[in-house]
Amino acid sequence: MTVITPVVMLADSNAREYADSYTLSQSSVEGPDLRMTDSMRRLATPWNVAISRTNLIDPNSLPEGIILDPACGSGTQLAALCVALNRPGLGVELSGEAAPIAAVNIEEVGKWDKANWQIASRIIWGDSISASKIMYSYSESIGKENPLISLLHIDPARPPDAQKHTIDEMEPPLDKLLAAWAPYLQTGNFSAPALILDLSPRLSEDQQKEVETIVDTIWPEAEKTWQWATQGRGRIDRLSLWVGAVASPHQNRLIRLSKTGTPKLLEGSKETPISDIKSAEIGEHLTIVDPCLIASGLAESWKNIATSSESRWYTITGRRPILITSEPILSSYHELHIQLETYDMIHSFVQISGEVVAHVPQLEHHLISNIAQVAVKVGLSSLKLRCTIDPEIQPQMQSEMDREMRNLTVKNSGNAGFITEVIGGYVICRSTS
């Protein structure tokens, strides 16, 4: 195996010429310009996501020191951490193609941020397992002996099929990496150093336990929080383990990221909800929630905040988990008792919600006109299909439903509604969200 001697990659004229000739600057209204190759762009964390995640960290809780990213890629997440925490960053990158581009990105973000953290920030081309050599090169470069590390962030490379590969197939291997850097990581007032381990969102529960075991082997009483992150569309975009000073008091955390604004945050202990497939009755309220609530184990935590009325999970599988309640979501709480951020958080995980107003036994092409008539009779002016339908025919059926509803209603009259499947058929709901 070839041993790479660590090389400090400064954003000098050679690095800039290389970066500019290889890629174009990626402009962003909300963030700095970042240079990336095509392969980097597919893997890199978008700037708005990177900065939203770092804003969850309390800088005052971290011990002294720099930010380390031993597999920094384009440097996007490292730069976001430096910006949010106002601390220098040390990035290590095994790819000789990526390292000079990351160096240019770090310097550009520093100029964009108009801060001084980039003065002591460095990108090093080398093998991140060689911690002592990396730290020696970094110390020599900044002219400071024994620099401290306050936070380690790592997003290791991994095979595409995360559920079938083993944890030790990650590059760099987590166990070797953490063992190599343990002597340089500060724990402060915590049982373990601050770590953010970005992992595949498809990691199985057994694999999650393997990661925990790796951490516990070095730091037996480490504070740990599993964090699921989603940008919507019912998909977990990131799964990460937050350790030490960056862990929360809760076992699990789910964040709803957005392109603008503060991420919506839900925390709690993992609990498996139990489904009761008793059919939804007229007058009950049906809410289709984001399946990320189920995946993160926080569906019960969310339900306990969302409603104090009689409630039950109708289904907890598939793309459309359903909660049945006797009252609308949050309706039993006085508005002054619920903070706006809590209200927004609850509704950020709602796909659609409404009152059950009618039952229909079937949903077929030849029945669209009949179903539209039922919907109009209960005061609806539109009806969206929120059902499991062949994607090749769903647009046609929705278009036909829209046309029938337009022909039967007066323009701008009535309420919006939706139809979804339940045991024994389908229900029509008057939308409340």
In short:
This protein has 433 residues and is an alpha/beta fold. The protein contains 13 helices and 19 strands.
Mean pLDDT: 89
Biggest β-sheet description:
10 strands, mixed
* Second-tier CATH architecture of the largest domain: 3-Layer(aba) Sandwich
Q: Rg, please? A: 26 Å
The rough form would be described as: elongated
- Report low-confidence residues grouped into runs of 5 or more: none
Query: Percent of residues in helical segments?
Result: 25-40%
Strand percent estimate: 15-25%
| CATH topological fold name of the largest domain | Rossmann fold
Distance between the termini: 59 Å
CATH class of the largest domain: Alpha Beta
Number of helices: 13
Describe this structure in words.
The chain has 2 domains: 7-268, Vaccinia Virus protein VP39 (Rossmann fold, 3-Layer(aba) Sandwich), CATH 3.40.50; 285-431, VC0802-like (2-Layer Sandwich), CATH 3.30.2130. It has a 10-stranded mixed beta sheet with strand order 1-6-5-4-7-8-10-9-11-12. Strands 14-15-13-16-19-18-17 form a 7-stranded mixed beta sheet. A hairpin with a 7-residue loop joins β9 (224-230) and β10. It is of the alpha/beta class and 433 residues long. Helix content is 30%, strand content 23%. The protein is built from 13 helices and 19 strands. The protein has helices spanning 13-22, 38-43, 47-54, 76-85, 98-113, 131-142, 174-181, 205-218, 292-295, 299-306, 340-348, 368-377, 394-408, and strands at 7-9, 25-26, 34-35, 66-69, 89-93, 122-125, 149-154, 194-199, 224-230, 238-243, 252-256, 264-268, 285-289, 311-315, 322-325, 350-360, 380-385, 415-422, 425-431. The protein is elongated. It starts with 6 loop residues before the first strand and ends with a strand.
